[in-house]
Amino acid sequence: MSGEISIVVPTHNEAAAIAATLARLREPEILEVIVVDGGSDDGTPDLARPLADRVLETSAGRARQMNAGARTARGSILFFLHADTRVPEGFGADIVAACARAIGGRFDVELDAPGVVFRLIESAINLRSRWSRLATGDQGLFLRREVFEALGGYPEIALLEDLALCAKMKRRGRLAALRSRVRTSARRWQRHGTLRTVLLMWWIRSLYALGASPGRLARLYRPAR
Q1: Taking burial as the number of CB atoms within 10 A of a residue's CB, which of 49, 150, 157, 219 is the most buried?
Q2: What's the domain range around 18?
Q3: How far is it, in rounded angstroms, from Cα 46 to Cα 119?
């Protein structure tokens, strides 16, 4: 069956990346591409309009934006993709096949920077995700529409909404961990230093597991964005 997937891309000041990301999304399994902008002032919505089926504008907040896109989506499968993440060839067929045997899933990830350090980081992300059955938004999260709606969508929290949704998903059913890779930006590590960023992310995840509020964690994370 073709045309099953609605892709939702949340954006905020992604003029440098959005066109390249959207240009790769037209495959037979894709029903529509919905960009949801959270108040960009760099022209992101104008760059997205020729390449998307719809461009919505909402207040900022990635979870809020993705939920807004999902509410307008018509596909039986929802695929949430970050604006700086590029999909592999054949991604649409991979998602449809995965959703035939699981409630949803994610891709492996690779970073768009050369060097052994970045290969180690991406390998650690993929291994941790496969072991924990959790995924971050950089990995391209997808799930059946009815499951997303039954779970109440993304919790509209300041940070880690992807992990929160995945935690609910894995209690609901099987998640597919696809070996095909999305390619995402390494800018966070390059801008603020690889070691500092890795340690910060582990610290944030640890605090979250211990019950720290997403609002507090967002204040820790924001300087590293």
Answers
A1: 157
A2: 5-224
A3: 35
